[in-house]
Amino acid sequence: MQAVLMRFRKPVVGIMGDIKEMFQHIRIVAADQNSQRFLWRGMEREKVPDVYIMEAVIFNAACSPSSVLYVKNVNAAEYESEFPVIVEAIKSGMYMDDLLNGEDDAVKATQMIKDFVELFRRGGMQICNWASSSKQVVKNIPPELRAKGLRNFDTNSELAVERALVVNWCPEQDEFKFNTIYHKIETDIVTGVKNPTKTEVLQLIMPVIDPLGFVAHFAVKAKILFQQLWLSTIGWDKQLQENQIASRKKWLLKLEEITVLTIPRCYSTNLKMAGDVFPDASVWPKEKLVEVKLPEEEMRRCVGVVAVREPFGCPRFPSWMRAVRTNSWICRFITEDTSFNYSLKRKGAPVVTSELTVAELERSEHIIFKAVQRESFAGEIAGLRQRKP
């Protein structure tokens, strides 16, 4: 998901669509259909149940996600010679049935949508619910293929807010935004008037979904708050204790601040960009920033932050080996930069997907040891740096 969103931020004109009823369009071979049998009595509970077999892919099967992705990619590969750019976009710019992509201008983006529709039509699927940051592109999309809020769109209308995977995308301003609208929680709980239960605290925290880490500093505080509740062994239906209310109210006061935060979807309208990763290991914990380096003439007026990695905290892991392995995977991700591999990735650089090596695990342990030392002996280290006894 993070990789798809990061690549979605590169094109000047963004487009978004999804495959209609993707699972229902993929059939199971006859020999395997008996594994999808189910019994149905309806409201007549005493009668012998009817036996049904699902011939299409079902949602709750563990193999369904990988099956539909395989079919999607096989269908795309059949037309690679005719639609090379579209096939590459399908393989790297889709998250399940959701497509996030774009082009350098409205004309190219319009043609890209037509090619997507044609390729999926040949595979027996329909890609619809299209949205774009360009009104010209939206106008050229057939109304029945547009997103629900754009069916009656005209050039004088404002582009409706869309959901780009788990992020709110405002095509009109071409920005990502956050909201704190809670439909299933009492207003008194959200405003802090009523003392919540442990379950209600979790309901407040969960909607803050931020795969690119734009509000990581806010999300981390929420996770710490819930971790403290968990360690207190309070029941799910029990209200917070007096010593826990202050932290919760402080967090709620900060909740509204994220609603004014806006992040440009596009890194820069300048098409000559290069991506890099800049880890700051001088002080721990610090975020890892993935930044876009722009041409010198534009650098003074445009800075693009691609993503932020949350600080690594040992207490959140149930075992030492789990912490080491998690940190190893993060280090590999940053080193290989696999999420930023669109056209910004080094050409020809291999993507490492094998198991962790002994060297990587040892390096991870070394990083954690140094981090703990910096945290536990901060005063002594500062004194040594200043050459004080």
Summarize the structure.
The chain contains 13 helices and 13 strands. The protein has helices at 2-8, 64-77, 84-92, 106-122, 135-140, 187-191, 198-205, 216-231, 242-255, 296-299, 320-336, 358-376, 378-385; strands at residues 13-19, 37-40, 50-53, 94-95, 98-103, 127-132, 162-164, 167-170, 175-177, 262-264, 274-279, 288-293, 304-309.
Order of helices and strands: HEEEHHEEHEHEEEHHHHEEEHEHHH
Tell me about the biggest sheet?
Answer: 4 strands, antiparallel
Q: State the distance separating the first and last CA atoms.
A: 50 Å
**Total beta strands:** 13
Shape: globular
Poorly predicted sequence stretches spanning 5 or more consecutive residues? 273-290, 297-301, 338-351
Strand content: 15-25%
Number of DSSP helices?
13
Question: How much helix is in the residues?
Answer: 25-40%
Spatial order of the strands in the main sheet?
Answer: 4-5-1-6
* Computed CA radius of gyration, to the nearest angstrom: 25 Å
**Class computed from helices, strands and strand pairing:** alpha+beta
Oligomer: single chain
What number is the mean pLDDT?
A: 78
